[in-house]
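TEACHING EXERCISE
Course module: macromolecular assemblies
Task: Read the component lines below, then compare them to the predicted structure of the full complex.
Student: A.B.
Group: 4
Components provided:
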Amino acid sequence: MTRLITSGFSHFILFIGILIMIVPVWMIFASSTHTGLTINTHGLQMFLGDSFYENYMRVLLYQGGFFKEITALKMFLNSFIMATGVAILSVITSLMAAYALVYYRTKYATFLFWIIFVTILVPLELRIFPTYSVMAELNLVNSYFGLIVPISASAIATLFFRQFYKTVPDELLESAKLDGANTWRFFVDFLVPLSKTMIVAMLIFMFVFGYNQYLWPLLVTSSEQYWTVVMGLKMMSGSIVHRFAFVMMSMVPPILIIIVLQKHFIKGVFQDK
Amino acid sequence: MKKVQFKSSYSQYLFLAPQLGILLIFLYWPIIQTFRDAFTMQDAFGFGTQFVWFDNFLFIFDDPAYWIAFKFTIIYSFVITLITASIGLLLAVQANNVMHGKSAYKTLLIWPYAIAPAVVGVMANYFFSERFGLLYHLFNNLWGFNWYESVFDSYIYLIIAGSWKQISANFIFFLAGLQAIQRSVIEASMIDCKNSVRRFWTITFPLLMPTTFFLIIINITYAFFDTFGIIDTTTIGAPSGETRTLVYKAYMDGFRGLDLGSAGAQSIMMMFIVLFITIFQFRYIEGRIHYN
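Instructor-supplied answer key:
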């Protein structure tokens, strides 16, 4: 009986927690399906209206921005390119760097580790102007390269892979050596397949990280052609319901990825079985 | 370290080259420039720079606006850490407690983690707008809430906006921490201690210490840096610069005010604060908790 009561209490608390998470998003969504007039006279809405198709189509295809030369559709494309680029590049570079740190014997190992590790202490926000001026000198402003590469060296991912490699039994390398595998073959044929779960988790993590960037695209894109969704939110003009619709659409890709790939994400990050 | 390794050779550096290359060009080079900026001053016409020792640092220490931002950053990170860790822990304990629907609850609470801070800010905007914001009107009826003018009210606004999505990260990590506690430990403690509340604080919570301290660091970093997008889409520092974090102020001074010397000095101060917290974490806290 007490078991039932405490579990009922747990469900109740969790239910409230979920309401706090879902209600605000639901209200913006419900409001995005109404007309601007309804919102202006009655405020945010709890129930769906009938302007869904109209509002969302207009947002996707409307030429926005100061020079009216970018659509939300193009911003989504830019965000996808940026997020995918950041995810792939940072996972590959981290996999390789962690491999060099764990599987090579060298007296510089600690030094090399710290050179990578201390960068966690200096997030982009702390060196934003000098990084920008480096970009300007190298002529990388307004390019996908400039959006992706400078934020694609992830010390966190390197740490995760390093931790993971350390748990790989030594026998693996011994037997691979007996089979005549060189360093490159061992990495590609043995270690990378073994790290699959971890790789997927880090890809998800870095994709969301890249997609959610705000300050960086704001700085390195003066041309509207390179605007991304998250930074474009502030720039888009239009009536209030169109802004609601844009906000809703901007959340869909990262939320979808987290929900659909949730198991892999959690498995990798927590090294669950 | 591994017992079996490859001998050091040039190939090691080929594996390191991509990441180190990006770090050198886009991280170490800019950091060196940050230090150069912090110790120089541009003359009024922008023709040249002059080495000024610690003038930029003395200037920011004399600036009341810097200390306002300092105060806000400390309060903000403390309150966000406290709120998100407590609610995250509360929800995780309940989710760990239920027999049915555990994974459904996980899914229903994990997704806000994925939303960009800037998007959260834009959303919060709608709930705190004077025209149709529900929370604005609710709080306004309760105590005359007006974040445009009251510092306290603008804090409330940013704390709600900043905590919302971070609860989910705390929930995920606490739940993982709870599930990692061995079944036998829990069963043994159930025999010794019938009171479940006391059992939680004397057995479970101490075992969660590593997770808790990890999350404290995660939450502080979040409040320091990731809230940039939230502030820039909500109060933009209103009223009169009271809700600017140190990072946001450095950005404003450098970008809007074009004062790179001051922005550089502020960035270096921030690096020291982060360094201090990290060292504190390693030296004093890691030594006192038990990992199993």
